[in-house]
Write a structure and sequence with these properties.
By secondary structure, the protein is α+β, with helices and mostly antiparallel strands. Helix content is about 30%, strand content about 30%.
């Protein structure tokens, strides 16, 4: 079949960053904007085997549905989240018992609350789908792997992208994120003086598909269920502690295993092993606005968040959906960008505020704060409508 070239695209779109948010945006734009020309830039080579990146990520149900629509969801490798269990490590709670919040997919009438898989297992199917789309429509869809973007410059009715050569586009979407420690500071920046230790643990007797978040006096710790390797139950670990008085750094693996067993409730099952852990600094780093001229920042390029709520990637994917939806609904680019800024504000700022409040609360030395947090969990568990509203927020964001 002979391809009909796109001689005069209605939109020339540059996507900078071939991570999950950038590739999802590019694929979505390729499907929803048939007269747009889309170019993806990334510093890494296309031959680099991204599938081996082991970082564990949790996707909300809305994000899973998006990737399914794009034909880039690897269900065989994903572990569905069927239940989220949030609790607080004692002190004693007297007649209240230990406060906890349980959100179940079955109670919300959905097959799953979300799913867990590695970064590489998210990006590899997206990249394969994007490369296949480029092969089908080489005149309209282009890949510039191995081409780091060194500069963006807003010009009249467009933006210049400098990646060895300077090219003009109608819009440039920056989706390169990175981690807090390596980022230039944005308009809203705060170092939480916390460290996240990440890795994997093995378990026995864990409930299938259950994710756990545990509030401790040092900070939050989370276990994310992983697909079984046929040998043992596994979970991804995110363990947040103070950086200035790190209680994890000097521990041996055996000592870390003992501490983890004391932190998490019996409901997780028996923790039998812990992998070597990596660590990174935690902070808030956010732009006040998504739009700068004809450049738009989404995902971690717009806001890097504390992992306490596990919403960073999901927020970025929702950014991508709204941008493409607005481009499909409106031809005037200035109107599109105003609409994106306005439509994304409630979801974006409520998520930033919630994660920032929770992260800062672990650094406050206030009498009764732990009790207040525990009472909040107990109240949410008791109020089914509030619990369901929280579940919908987790799955789909603010709508």
């Amino acid at each position: 079949m002979t391809e009909v070239p796109v001689a005069s695209p209605e939109l020339d779109l540059a996507v900078i960053g071939a991570g999950p948010v950038g590739l999802a945006l590019a694929l979505h734009a390729a499907h929803a904007l048939p007269r747009a020309r889309v170019t993806v830039f990334d510093a890494r080579s296309a031959e680099f085997d991204i599938s081996r990146d082991p970082r564990t990520l949790a996707l909300a149900l809305g994000s899973v549905q998006m990737l399914e629509r794009l034909g880039a969801w690897d269900a065989a490798r994903a572990q569905p989240i069927l239940e989220v269990h949030v609790s607080q490590q004692p002190p004693s709670w007297g007649p209240l018992g230990e406060p906890e919040l349980r959100i179940r997919a079955a109670d919300e009438g959905v097959p799953m609350l979300g799913a867990v898989l590695s970064y590489g297992q998210i990006v590899a199917p997206l990249q394969a789908a994007w490369m296949a789309a480029c092969e089908r429509e080489p005149q309209r869809l282009r890949s510039r792997f191995g081409a780091p973007v060194t500069a963006l410059k807003n010009v009249s009715d467009g933006v210049e992208v400098d990646a060895d050569i300077v090219e003009r586009y109608d819009i440039a979407v920056v989706a390169e994120g990175g981690v807090f420690a390596d980022q230039a500071r944005k308009a809203l920046a705060h170092d939480y003086r916390q460290t996240a230790w990440v890795g994997q643990i093995t378990l026995e007797g864990a409930p299938p598909g259950a994710a756990f978040e545990r509030f401790t006096r040092h900070g939050p710790a989370a276990l994310l269920p992983l697909k079984s390797d046929g040998k043992a139950q596994r979970a991804g670990l995110v363990w947040c502690v103070p950086s200035d008085d790190d209680p994890v750094a000097e521990l041996s693996d055996a000592q870390r295993l003992t501490v983890l067993a004391s932190i998490f409730p019996p409901a997780v099952g028996r923790i039998t092993g812990v992998s070597p852990l990596k660590h990174f600094a935690l902070g808030l780093n956010a732009e006040r606005t998504l739009v700068d001229g004809r450049s738009v920042r989404i995902g971690n390029a717009a806001q890097t968040l504390h992992p306490v709520a596990g919403q960073g990637l999901n927020l970025g994917l929702r950014d991508a959906v709204e941008l493409v939806r607005s481009l499909a609904a409106e031809r005037d680019i200035a109107s599109v960008l105003r609409r994106v800024e306005w439509r994304r504000a409630p979801d974006r700022w409520s998520t930033i505020a919630t994660t920032d409040f929770l992260a800062r609360s672990f650094t406050w030395d206030l009498p009764g704060l732990g009790v207040a947090r525990g009472l909040g969990l107990a109240a949410m568990q008791a109020l089914a409508p509030a619990r369901s509203a929280l579940a919908r927020q987790m799955m789909f964001g603010s709508r």
